[in-house]
């Protein structure tokens, strides 16, 4: 199956999960490596923009398309998530669930509903699972940073003056 992420171009080929290990995230505590993925490029972009300030937007970003075996997925439906899983900022309970899954190491992927669009899915890639060697980078495509900045912030945008 194909899954997607958007990341600083200099980390495009890094499948260690080091960024999530350093800072933690909604579904992992700091110290536990993993990679956050989305089922579409559009969702990966939406998730990225929702968690990044325009002021800190890196000048070079890339879409990464991964080929991932679909034989080792644990699906977590909404009714199995903690009551506060939608909380902003994320709760310790959501980090506990994801970290337990990653530590148990039974599956390569954890499928979870997106906080932004509950009917779509994000995936947590367990970089310590034995099947990680079967994960392949299928494509790296550069993203124009100004394409994800709001039209009001763009210079010379055809949308300026229409707001």
Topology:
Blueprint: E1 2-8, H1 18-23, E2 35-38, H2 41-50, E3 61-67, E4 73-75, H3 92-104, E5 109-113, E6 121-125, E7 136-143
Parallel strand pairs: 4-5
Antiparallel strand pairs: 1-3, 2-6, 3-7, 5-6
Structure description:
It is built from three helices and seven strands, in the order βαβαββαβββ. A four-stranded mixed β-sheet has the order 2-6-5-4. The chain has a three-stranded antiparallel β-sheet with strand order 1-3-7. The termini are far apart. The protein is of the alpha+beta class. This is RES domain-containing protein.
Sum up the structure in keywords.
single chain; four-stranded mixed sheet; 7 strands; globular; disordered C terminus; RES_dom; RES domain-containing protein
What order do the strands of the largest sheet run in, or round the barrel if closed? 2-6-5-4
Query: What general form does the structure show?
Result: globular
By DSSP, the count of extended strands is 7
User: What structural class should be given to the helix and strand makeup?
Assistant: alpha+beta
Low-confidence stretches: 154-163
- Beta fraction: 15-25%
Radius of gyration: 16 Å
What is the residue-averaged pLDDT? 87
Q: Number of helical segments?
A: 3
In whole angstroms, the N-to-C terminal distance is 40 Å
How many structurally independent domains? 1
Q: Report the helical percentage.
A: 10-25%
Helix/strand order, N-terminal first: EHEHEEHEEE
Q: What characterizes the major β-sheet?
A: 4 strands, mixed
């Amino acid at each position: 199956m194909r899954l997607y992420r958007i990341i600083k171009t200099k980390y495009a080929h890094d499948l260690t999960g080091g960024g999530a290990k350093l800072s933690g995230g909604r579904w992992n505590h700091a110290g536990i490596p993993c990679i956050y993925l989305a089922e579409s490029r559009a969702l990966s972009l939406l998730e990225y923009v929702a968690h990044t300030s325009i002021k800190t937007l890196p000048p070079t970003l890339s879409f990464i398309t991964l080929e991932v075996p679909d034989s080792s997925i644990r699906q977590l439906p909404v009714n199995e998530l903690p009551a506060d899983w939608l909380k902003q900022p994320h709760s310790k309970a959501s980090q506990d669930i994801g970290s337990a899954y990653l530590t148990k190491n039974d599956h390569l992927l954890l499928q979870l509903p997106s906080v932004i669009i509950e009917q779509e899915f994000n995936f947590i890639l367990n970089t310590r699972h034995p099947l990680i060697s079967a994960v392949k980078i299928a494509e790296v495509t550069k993203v124009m940073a100004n394409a994800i900045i709001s039209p009001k912030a763009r210079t010379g945008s055809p949308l300026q003056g229409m707001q």
